[in-house]
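C-alpha cells help. One example:
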Amino acid sequence: MALAAQIKRLTKHSAIYGVGGFIQRALAVLLLPLYLKYLSKSDYGTIETLVALSTIIFTLLRSAIQNSFFRFYFDSDDEVYRARIVRTAFWSTMVAATGALAAGLILAEPISRGLFGTDDHVNLVRFAFLGLWATMNYDQLMALFRVEERSVLFSVASLANVLLTIGVTILLVVVYDQGPTGVIVGNFSGTLAVWAVRLRDSV
C-alpha cells in the first residue's frame, strides 16, 4: 500500500476513534449538573472513591492483556492465528474480570469498612465490582474493533454506551431517587448492554 494511502487510512480511523473517545469523556460533563443537584458531597466522595478503586484494579488486570493482544494480533495475517489471539484475549479478560468480581462480592464488607469505616456501602462496593467486570469485557470488545479497523462501529458503540448510560442514570437518580447506587449502576448499564449486544464479535 502506498504511503499516501496509509496516511489517509490512519488519519480517517484516528479521527473516528478520537470522536468515540471524546463522546465517552463528555459523559462526565453532561452528568455533572445532575450529580450536583441530586447528590451530597458525601455521596459524591463515596462514588469517586469506588471509581478510583475500580480504575486501579482495572489498570492492574487489563493492561497486560490488552498490550499483549495488540502486540500478537499483528504478528501474522493468518485468519486462524488471529482468531486464536482474539479468543485468548477474550477468555483471559473474562477470567480476570470474573475473578475480580468474585473477590469483590466476597470481600465487600471488609472493603466497605476499610474505605469508609462503615458497612453501609457494602452494596455499592458490589455494584462497583460488577461495573468493573462490565468495563473490562467492554474494553476488550472495543480493542477488537480497533485492530480490525472497524472505526465506525467503534464510534456507534461508544455513542450507544453514552446514551444508554445517561438515560439509565437519570432514570435511577432523578425518577427513583437511588442516589449513589443509581450513579454507579447507571454508569455501567450502557457498557454492559452494548457489550452483551456485540458479544458475538468477540468470540
In short: The mean pLDDT is 87. Residues 65 and 89 are 6 Å apart (CA to CA). The helical segments are 3-38, 41-73, 79-106, 108-116, 122-147, 151-175, 179-197.
